[in-house]
Amino acid sequence: MRKSMVFAVTALAVCGCAASNAVDQQAALASCQAVGISERDPQFATCMQAQIQGRREGQIERAYKGAKNIIPNERMTPHADVQIY
What is the distance between the alpha carbons of residues 28 and 23, in angstroms, rounded to a whole number? Predict the structure, then answer.
């Protein structure tokens, strides 16, 4: 039972990654075509790579901003210098 549960969770995770990559590819394709770069243009590969990278950086930035506010009321302890005798 436990092995089948681990397998199911792993399969879902892999599918999620594959779906994310497919979504990134489709969004990049649409963005490149929106600016007039088709699959036959020499700049197509560069456009696709730039669009995918930009989307990933945006996701990282949103995740970072969301993670900063997880514990908003926790106070930082003041720094205490250590004196060496």
Answer: 8
Residues 38, 41, 43, 48, CA torsion sign: positive
- pLDDT tens-digit profile, the chain (85 residues): 666 665 565 665 655 555 577 888 888 889 899 999 988 999 999 999 999 999 999 989 988 887 776 665 556 666 666 677 6
**pTM recorded for the entire structure:** 0.56
Q: Are residues 56 and 24 in contact, defined by beta-carbon separation less than 8 angstroms?
A: yes
43-65 b/e (C-beta count within 10 Å ≥ 16 → b): eeeebbeebbeebeeeeeeeeee
DSSP state of 76: P
